[in-house]
Amino acid sequence: MSKDIVECVHWDPEVDPAQLETRKKNKWVLLAGALAVVAVAVVVSLLIFLPGRREPGPADQTNPAEQTTQNTVYVGQAQPGDQQPGDNPALSGDPVLTQGVEYYKSEQYEAAISNLTLALVNDPASGEAYSYRGLSYFSQGKYEDAVADLIQARRYLGERSDVLTVRGISYYFMGRFPECIGDLTRALELDPVNTNALTYRAYAYDATGRADLAAADRARIG
After folding, report:
1. What is the domain-level CATH number for residue 91?
2. What does the chain look like in DSSP terms, one character per residue?
3. Given Cys at both, which of 11, 138, 171, 187 links 165, Cβ 3.0 to 4.6 Å?
4. pTM: predicted TM-score of the whole model, two decimal places
């Protein structure tokens, strides 16, 4: 008889197996929803009670432009032995050019550009006019125009540390770091204590992932 005994399992005829499966799924859905609510509550609490973290703003960063744009750059100033603009016969011989340079020095850049453009009509080979017009464009943040003029300035004036420096810095702001480094390296060969060139070459090295070279340039500045 014992072999004929069948172990019975309690079965509720009113519960369908499909319904049991659905109930199991619903339990998991409810559990997941509860966990999500708890997670949101934790995040909100952290945002409310923890000190706020702000992104670095302009006040927290050094603006690379400040090194140059806060100081007027004069053509010929950076190289020892160069004539100063006021002593250059080419400047004193053309009143339009001279007035353009004066406008540049007084930060009247639009007036400077107008006079220097006219000076170039009178003398298309005036390296000084190209230089100061390029500096005026640079001061306005028109870096492509500045580069175009400073290329011409180099053509007529030869290699000058000050001109190469401003052109190199213009390349920096255009994101053309290899050209920037090339110009500033040459400027430093002509004037090893050119702090503007060292500063911006360090920025360019940073931008190209060469932190060791950037540190070396900053060490030279002192």
Report:
1. 1.25.40.10
2. -GGG--------TTS-HHHHHHHHHHHHHHHHHHHHHHHHHHHHHHHHHSPP-----GGGS--TTHHHHTS---TTSSSTTPPPGGG-HHHHT-HHHHHHHHHHHTT-HHHHHHHHHHHHHH-TT-HHHHHHHHHHHHHTT-HHHHHHHHHHHHHHH---HHHHHHHHHHHHHTT-HHHHHHHHHHHHHH-TT-HHHHHHHHHHHHHTT-HHHHHHHHHHH-
3. 187
4. 0.63
